[in-house]
Amino acid sequence: MWPFRRKQREQVDLEERSPQLGIKYKDLLVMHHLTKAGADLERPRHVTFYLYAPTLDAAQSVAKEAQGADHGLRAQVGKPSPQDPDSWPVTCEANAVISPDFVRETGDLFDDLAARHHSEYDGWEAAATP
Q1: Could you read off the pLDDT of 53-83 as tens digits, one per residue?
Q2: Please, which residues have CB within 8 angstroms of residue 40's CB and are 6 or more apart in sequence?
Q3: 95 - beta bridge partners?
Q4: Fewer beta carbons within 10 Å, N or C terminal of the chain?
Q5: Dihedral sign for Cα atoms in the order 51, 55, 58, 63
């Protein structure tokens, strides 16, 4: 028997928030991967957010509200795939600095929009290079 025992890693709920920054762990993970890929998060870069709405009306409402949210977001409603005709994609794009405040505020915005419009916020991605 070994004299040392490895400490088991605790499972983390990625939807929970970091107590220090108030950012969801899944968003911190994206930020970590960006910095690991060499991204300087203090430089503006292209960011895309993904939502899926149950109807065209809901998708258009999400897009309109996202554009008016004062984050410089440009929203576009796509067409549902034949495999999932009740899922209207909404993509929102911006050029932004990936600061903790930006990540927290936009995450809260899309969580709220998704809840109010019975939609799904699927997360975000950003370019590693500006």
Answers
A1: 999 999 999 999 999 998 899 999 999 999 9
A2: none
A3: 46
A4: N
A5: positive
Q: What is the 3-state secondary structure (H, E, C) of the chain?
A: CCCCCCCCCCCCCCCCECCCCCCEHHHHHHHHHHHHCCCCCCCCEEEEEEEEECCHHHHHHHHHHHHCCCCCCEEEECCCCCCCCCCEEEEEEEEECCCHHHHHHHHHHHHHHHHHCCCEEEEEEECCCC
Give ∠ CA 84-89-92 in degrees, rounded to 5. Answer: 165
Q: List pLDDT tens digits, range 19-37.
A: 999 999 999 999 999 999 9
CA distances from 121 to 2, 9, 51 (A): 46, 28, 4
**What's the pTM value of the predicted model, to 2 decimals?**
0.88
Length of the chain as a residue count: 130
